[in-house]
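Researcher: Quick one. two chains, 828 residues in total.
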Amino acid sequence: MLRYLVNRIIAFIPTLLGVSILVFLAIRMVPGDQITAMLGTEAGMLTQAQRAALEEYFGLDKPIVEQYFSWLGNALRGNLGYSVRHGEEVTKLILNHFPVTLELAFLSVAIALIIGLPIGIMAAIRHNSLLDLFGRIISMLGLSVPNFLLGTLIIYVLSVVFGILPNSGNYVDFHEDPVLNLQQLIFPAFAMGFSFAASVMRMTRSSMLEVLGDDYVRTARAKGLRERSVVLVHALRNALIPVVTLIGVEIGYLLGGAFIVEQIFSLPGIGRLAVGAISQRNYALIQGVTLFVALNFVVINLVVDVIYAAIDPRISYDRKA
Amino acid sequence: MLSRRIRHIFPVVVIVIALLGAALPLNAQGNTLIMARAIDATGIDPHTQTAFASLALLNMIYEPLVITNHNLEISPALAESWEFADDAMTLTFKLREGVKFHDGSDFTADDVIASYTRILDEATGAAARTNYVSIQSMEAPDPYTVIFHLSTPDVPLLTAMTSINAAILPSELIENGDPTTTAIGTGPFKLDSWVPEEVTRLSANPDWWGEGPFVDGVEIRIIPDEASILAALRAGTIDFAMMNDPLVATLLIDDPNIKLARTPALDYHVLQLRAAVEPLDKLEVRQAISCAIDRQEVVDSAALGEGRVTGPLTMPAFALPTSELFCYEKDLEKARELLASVGLQDGFTLPVMVANAEPPTALSEAQSIQAQLAEINIKVEIEPLELSVYVDRWLAADFTACVALNGGRTDPYTMYARYWQYGARFEQVAGYVDDELDSLMKQGQRETDPAKRLEIFHELERQLTEKSPWIWLYAGYKYTAYQPYVKGWEPIANDALYFLYEVSLER
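Model:
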């Protein structure tokens, strides 16, 4: 197991290096730089000398290769650069914005599981019943309604119908005001979690249906076990494996920041940081955020693989000859 | 069996309902104005910022020597009075006494000279520098008088000086501090904190020389989606908002609980043609395009009628009535004749570059033009581009035609000096210049008699529409929306939040 972990962690290095080079080149190939992003067409009013001064200020005056290696050298030392726009270290900016995204991600996964798992299980048990039909309608809705639409609708209903709107650009941290914080996050988390709930529901239903037909479930029933323990103890554990994969992938995405939902609900998370960075051509920040998101992704994947082994005794990462 | 299941779901339902129920109204309170807008400032150095969003914030904090008042006239700010010499070669300011910077230091002539020296220094990177290059030297005979000596007669310089790009910074900050990270002005509000893309907090400056502010401070929240700003207004969590998208702002017109202020903007929506490119090099072709476009229809279809058809000059003091301008009445017959006269009755293909969502109406404007020009066989090919790509190509004059929203000024010379004269910075982008336009611009820069200047610019406007290097379409509105208890707000065409000092809250 340890050996497996070490191997996987070593494999992170080429992945992250590849991501960093790709992003580094990609953002520089896109037209425009921080100067035109800041000044727009007014950038054309600058004289040569003025432009040179600004390039030096934004660190654009050095050759690309030199820029990359100096960035890489610093990144290895944990310094992801400096955002001139924010007047702050990139590392610090990411760490400041990450808790919002993290909390949002876990809340939406929680919401997805609370909605998706029970309905999925019951739909499988009561296959082709009214409840099953209801579950399928909900999951079709969840999969086909994009989260920006759902988010906008939620905002509309809250503000126009109920005259309340906990989020209006005044995000508070959990430790400052837990109640207000949850109020602010529950709706965006729902907007994001709803479509995920639909996938969880479908996945749970179909894998439960599969497992419920298996021999060992029949044996469990034949032993005279109560239906409740057949379903929850014997069937569910096996049926959960694909659901765990799904959750792992989803959390990986969610930790990359909910670009659109954070924007609509004006939450200061990683997604909003990234959107701002891209529109301002804030190279250091784009690079830092992407690297961080990529790192999250590979780590989460590893965690999911480890969890497999815990749920399913048949899976083991120890090589036994 | 069923009842047991319900018992299991019950606690979950209770928790969700409790959370929903706990989301009580969180209305704005106190004597601080809570404001929202979609776009944040890109920096706090008034000399280098050009984005509207930055200027709007900075003119709460900083002040220039002179400002533009509600009637778009030049009025005193840090200068109490000023005088041009008859030859327009020297400009003398008498400064306001007893003004203090936010750090408590006194405002004197040294600060004025230090600030203009910084703007003119190429190392500063001030994009507006070109507006002040006629300043050759400055002197301060006493601490409250500054004399600007000019290299050429430059009447519009005074208008250029109303810009926040000509804000006066303390000389101490310029010499020993960093204006890109520290904001010390003389304005009605002090900058307490700026968290980019999130929130900016300002407090009232108790030592401000004018009357006000009547609020304790202003909190500017960035809500990136204008529909969410609208929702926040309706939910009462914010007091005041700036909006850009007419399609969102107009949703408030019939809302009895929210006030919507529209001010005619000076910025103009335009179809820029490049007369340097065939077949736009033919006067008849450009005129035909002008005659074939019903500008009101562009406003109606792209901006829900939220705008007024305008010629090149959008400032009321100089604008001619559109009825006096060439082909402002759609005339298809004439358009077809003009095209036929140069053998193009079968039309041609016109590529039109458009920036995505900048302005929000850009694409719809292009589509309206496309439909209208199809009537004279001109096939418009719309090229939608991401904003930075668009800006790059615009600056490189790498396009045949484009839909643009260009900035307006209160003085026609300052507004168009970059386009319509020989050697202008954007001569290539404008794509057209001739002796008459060049000479009118030069006269307008020199002339000190207001009546004669007016005549010069009327002539410029007539010529610009007749020669049709561009097709001016319309000027939109600036929107501010606010709760009924926000009193005393009078918006101004140049977006200035300076006048928030007049606002009071009567919750």
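The longest helix of chain B spans residues 2-22.
Researcher: Thanks, that's what I needed.
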